[in-house]
């Protein structure tokens, strides 16, 4: 029996027709079972749909309304979250806002994420920064949804970030904060952006024109051209009073019309995010017409003459420093110090000559000056505050004219009169408002007044003597339009109207600042 059992045990694995038959039957029956399960699944799905439909029909109108309101509230929260994330990305691209500021509320996002899909509500969307190509994964180097780190990297390049355990490379990092070089130092114009409110391009154009240079730009070329028009009429008396009541002599009405066209190039360069320097090189063309009566001895007969001159003007240069950066509560305060050189032709020593032989009243200078002939230093302070879409600005400056000695200040032909001349120091102040009516266009209106006291002259070895009629008060009303062509080029147009006789009748100009 033991031998037979042993042989049966050995023969079973080698020949088992019954076992093989069972395996073949199971393989053949599997597809039939799967096919039979399909109608069952369809039946179950139909039954579940019917059950859900019966459940919805059993709900009251108030329950349905509450469910709909929850869906609407959830969608509104998602829209607000997306808007915050888009705003953060825009701020990061502009370099505005403190890193980490304005990030979506983590508490509200966590509340939404606690019940994804509950009560039929839509599943919350992921942060926008995670959906963008190349965005850093959560917990890597980012502290906000915009991918901007909350803490700047340490100045030691190549060290390990202790917060994340990620080794820093020697090159630029993807998670580096906006406006920070690989060595940890801020680039020009980036550190103050964190404190400034966001401005539109139109508001930036107003800042550049009315306030100070844009410190966040390394280089700016500002070319402009303007036309100043003067029209002066004066009564000319040539004679004397008899018996203190009767005038004996000639009475003539003189008129002077003058155009001064100035084309200049102002080059500005940013040294740091708070300091900028510039140099302005003007070229001046002047045309004046003189009209005087008295030709042929008749007061009613007029004679005229014209004089043209062109030359380089007074080159000036300056430095700007930003004392305060604009915040939500504080204005932008910038100080400036400018120096003007006497590179233009001086008005002193130009001789006045008779133009026509039949009219002794018609006299005109042989040429027209293109500069003041003096060195001067101007210290100024300007203030600007943005209340989107309104920009308020104001300025105050003091100009000190340095006295200078001239070999001849006389305008009479054949006469030489050396003297030292001191122009009056000028106090200028003004203010205005600009309105940005689109992202690229703005309009401004401002008022400016300049007060200059009496000028003085001193002969060699003498004392200072005032020049009669040299005290001036120039008041001007300015209107401006700004249009931003693109991120580099802006067009600024301006019209100024003189309100006092010492100011030009009007000034029309246009400027084209180009920033790199």
Automatic annotation (TrEMBL):
Biased composition, class Low complexity, residue ranges: 91-110, 128-149, 157-171
Descriptive protein name: Transporter
Lineage per the UniProt record: Bacteria, Pseudomonadati, Pseudomonadota, Betaproteobacteria, Burkholderiales
Domain of life: Bacteria
Region ranges (Disordered): 1-20, 91-204
Biased composition annotated in UniProt, kind: Polar residues: 182-200
Organism field: Paraburkholderia hiiakae
């Amino acid at each position: 029996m033991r031998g037979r059992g042993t042989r049966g045990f050995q023969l079973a694995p080698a020949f088992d027709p019954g076992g093989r038959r069972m395996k073949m039957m199971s393989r053949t029956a599997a597809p039939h079972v799967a096919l039979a399960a399909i109608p069952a699944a369809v039946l179950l799905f139909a039954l579940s749909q019917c059950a859900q439909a019966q459940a919805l029909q059993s709900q009251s109108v108030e329950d349905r309304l509450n469910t709909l309101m929850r869906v609407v509230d959830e969608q509104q929260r998602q829209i607000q979250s997306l808007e915050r994330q888009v705003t953060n990305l825009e701020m990061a691209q502009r370099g505005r806002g403190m890193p980490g500021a304005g990030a979506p509320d983590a508490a509200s996002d966590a509340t939404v994420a606690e019940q994804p899909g509950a009560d039929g509500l839509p599943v919350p969307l992921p942060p926008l920064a995670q959906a963008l190509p190349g965005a850093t994964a959560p917990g890597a180097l980012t502290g906000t949804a915009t991918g901007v780190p909350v803490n700047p990297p340490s100045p030691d390049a190549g060290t390990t970030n202790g917060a994340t355990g990620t080794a820093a490379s020697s090159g630029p990092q993807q998670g580096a904060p906006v406006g920070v070089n690989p060595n940890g130092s801020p680039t020009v114009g980036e550190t103050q952006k964190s404190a400034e409110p966001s401005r539109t391009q139109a508001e930036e154009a107003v800042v550049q024109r009315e306030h100070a240079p844009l410190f966040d730009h390394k280089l700016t070329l500002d070319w402009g051209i303007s036309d100043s028009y003067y029209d002066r009429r004066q009564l000319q008396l040539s004679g004397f009073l008899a018996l203190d009541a009767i005038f004996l002599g000639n009475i003539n009405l003189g008129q002077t019309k003058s155009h001064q066209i100035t084309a200049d190039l102002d080059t500005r360069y940013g040294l740091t995010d708070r300091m900028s320097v510039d140099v302005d090189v003007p070229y001046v063309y002047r045309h004046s017409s003189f009209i005087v009566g008295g030709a042929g001895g008749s007061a009613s007969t007029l004679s005229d003459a014209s004089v043209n001159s062109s030359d380089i003007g007074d080159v000036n240069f300056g430095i700007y420093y930003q004392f305060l950066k604009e915040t939500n509560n504080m204005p932008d305060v910038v100080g400036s110090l400018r120096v003007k050189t006497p590179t233009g032709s001086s008005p002193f020593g130009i001789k006045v000559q008779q133009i026509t032989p039949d009219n002794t009243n018609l006299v005109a200078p042989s040429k027209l000056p293109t500069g003041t002939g003096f060195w001067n230093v101007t210290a100024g302070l300007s203030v600007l505050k943005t209340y989107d879409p309104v920009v308020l600005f104001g300025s105050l400056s003091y100009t000190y004219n340095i006295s200078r000695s001239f070999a001849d200040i006389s305008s009479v032909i054949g006469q030489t009169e050396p003297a030292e001349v001191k122009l009056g120091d000028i106090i200028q102040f003004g203010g205005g408002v600009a309105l940005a009516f689109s992202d690229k266009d703005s309009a401004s209106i401002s008022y400016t007044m300049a007060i200059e006291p009496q000028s003085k002259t001193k002969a060699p070895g003498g004392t200072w003597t005032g020049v009669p009629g040299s005290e001036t008060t120039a008041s001007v009303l300015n209107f401006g339009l700004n249009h931003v062509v693109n991120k580099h080029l802006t067009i600024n147009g301006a019209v100024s109207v003189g309100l006092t006789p010492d100011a030009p009748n009007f000034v029309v100009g246009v400027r084209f600042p180009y920033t790199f």
